[in-house]
Structure formats: structure tokens, C-alpha cells
Design a protein that fits this description.
Aminopeptidase; 181 residues; alpha+beta
């Protein structure tokens, strides 16, 4: 995308950057407090996989959109929820931002569909979104033994864990894996 084309792509107070390098410095500075999906390391990781990553933003929020191509279709994968660039974060404003992002994507035909990934922790969703449970749970692990927690898993899941242990699978946090040597 040319810079002139980028400059014309500002609608509904949403701006578009086809690369992290196109983001304004004042936004880049604020992303130091954001999760790993806003980092230079993640950006480089996506580029190394020959995928694209776009950024939609306004003066209050930013969201990265990983683009995956399949034949002639382009899917937008949301690995993260929006990051608030100010101290004034509200669910109503987040929802408005997400709706404007969807309208922007439709207006400029950037993607054929959008889906959130399990890594995203959305508190609100755009209008007309189909929402499924993410499977994230908060467990009180301090007052239960490992065996008590393990026994609460479905038998099929317990068998999958045991199989992974037998096969020597190691579980690492995403950011640990991303930043390892």
C-alpha cells in the first residue's frame, strides 16, 4: 500500500497502518505497556511467517489485525483485544471502537472475514458479532492440590495430559517461547 493511499484511509476517526513502522511515534511509545501482540518481536515473528499485520487505531485505542491469506480470501485474525492508549477506558468506548473498525474494514474491503483468536480477551464485541465462549477460567489453585485440580478435568483431557507427559511435551508461555534464543 502506498503512503498516499494510507493517508486517504481515515474514516470514522479510524486510522490504518499497514505496518508497525507506519504507526505514529506517540502511539509506539505507549505500546511499551501493551501485551506481547503489540511488540516489535511479535511483529517480526509475523513477518518471518510471511503474514501481514495491520493496525487500526484512533486517539484512544489500537488493535493489531493479523492477515492470513488462503487462495483469494483474506482473514483478519485478532490475536489481542484493543489496547487503550489513554487512562480513560470504558466498555462503551471499546465497543464503539470495534464497530468503527469493522465499518472501516468493510468500507475499504480489507478483509473477507474477521475472527478473534483464543489469545484475545474481549470484554465487548462489535454489533452483529457471533460470540462463543473462550474456555478461559479462573481457578483457586492455592486452596487445592494438583491432584484435586487434575481430577476435575474431563477424563479425555486427563488422558491427553498424560499422553503429552509420556511424549515429553513441554508447556511454555507464549511470550517465553517467542522471546527464547
Amino acid at each position: 500500500m502506498s503512503i498516499n493511499e494510507k493517508e486517504t484511509r481515515c474514516a470514522e476517526n479510524i486510522e490504518f497502518a499497514a505496518s508497525r513502522t507506519e504507526l505514529p511515534n506517540e502511539i509506539l511509545d505507549k505500546l511499551a505497556d501493551a501485551n506481547v501482540f503489540f511488540s516489535w518481536e511479535y511483529y517480526d515473528y509475523i513477518k518471518a511467517r510471511n503474514e501481514e499485520i495491520y493496525y487500526l487505531f484512533n486517539n484512544k485505542y489500537i488493535i493489531p489485525v493479523r492477515v492470513k491469506k488462503a487462495f483469494i480470501l483474506r482473514a483478519g485474525l485478532l490475536d489481542s483485544e484493543p489496547f487503550c492508549l489513554t487512562s480513560e477506558n470504558s466498555l462503551k468506548d471499546q465497543k464503539t471502537f470495534l464497530n468503527k473498525c469493522c465499518n472501516y474494514i468493510k468500507k475499504y474491503h480489507l478483509l473477507d472475514w474477521i475472527q478473534s483468536e483464543i489469545t484475545a480477551d474481549f470484554q465487548v464485541y462489535p454489533d452483529n458479532a457471533v460470540v462463543y465462549g473462550s474456555g478461559n477460567y479462573i481457578l483457586d489453585i492455592e486452596n487445592h492440590t494438583e491432584q484435586e485440580l487434575f481430577s476435575k478435568l474431563h477424563s479425555k483431557n486427563r488422558n491427553m495430559v498424560r499422553r503429552g507427559e509420556r511424549e515429553g511435551i513441554t508447556v511454555m508461555r507464549g511470550s517465553d517461547m517467542l522471546f527464547s534464543d
